[in-house]
Amino acid sequence: MTEAERVIGTPDIPDAEGADGATPQQPSEGAGPAGDGTGGGRGRKKVLVLLGVAVLAYALDLVSKMIVVAKLEHEEPIEIFGEWLKFDAIRNAGAAFGIGEAFTVIFTAIAAVVIIVIIRLARKLYSLPWAIALGLLLGGALGNLTDRIFRSPGVFKGAVVDFIAPAHFAVFNLADSAIVCGGILIVILSFKGLDPDGTVHKD
After folding, report:
1. pLDDT exceeds 60 at position 148
2. Is the pLDDT of residue 22 over 50?
3. Measuring CA to CA, which residue among 69, 25, 43, 51 is closest to residue 132?
4. Strands 85-92, 78-79: pairing kind
5. Given 61, 147, 162, 197, which residue is catalytic?
């Protein structure tokens, strides 16, 4: 009876495309919650990837800032590639790359909203590239939000520690790098038509 119901329910889908009726443009893992239950397991794995990437990005950012504050702050910049790249510790009250220093509280609120949106989006996440991209965004946002909350001059007004100083460019940190890389990856995935739930849109 189960086999008959399956055939009747999907008369136009060849068996080679899978029992859950997925097509190449809509991977079966994207239909997990409404399918045979295996997609839910794949979704949990993608969430674990997101969390793993976020934890790694956050940890690298946090450790690097601790080292910079302890060893480099109030010291002469360290030349990495001559004049082209230096490590120079500064405190940034603005957004990424020193933008908008007069709006620290607003940027803090935006970072908190981004984190909440990513957590909510993770519930329907079935795409590995999206998991990596969102993990980078989450880890970077958490890294800078930690500075906003716990560093001087006060809660939600704290200045972010920046230290990567390329020539003729703004000083930034690893959290900023994670956010930018995650954003670029999301743009690429959007152009490719890949959604967070694993479906692919072909124009």
Report:
1. yes
2. no
3. 51
4. antiparallel
5. 162
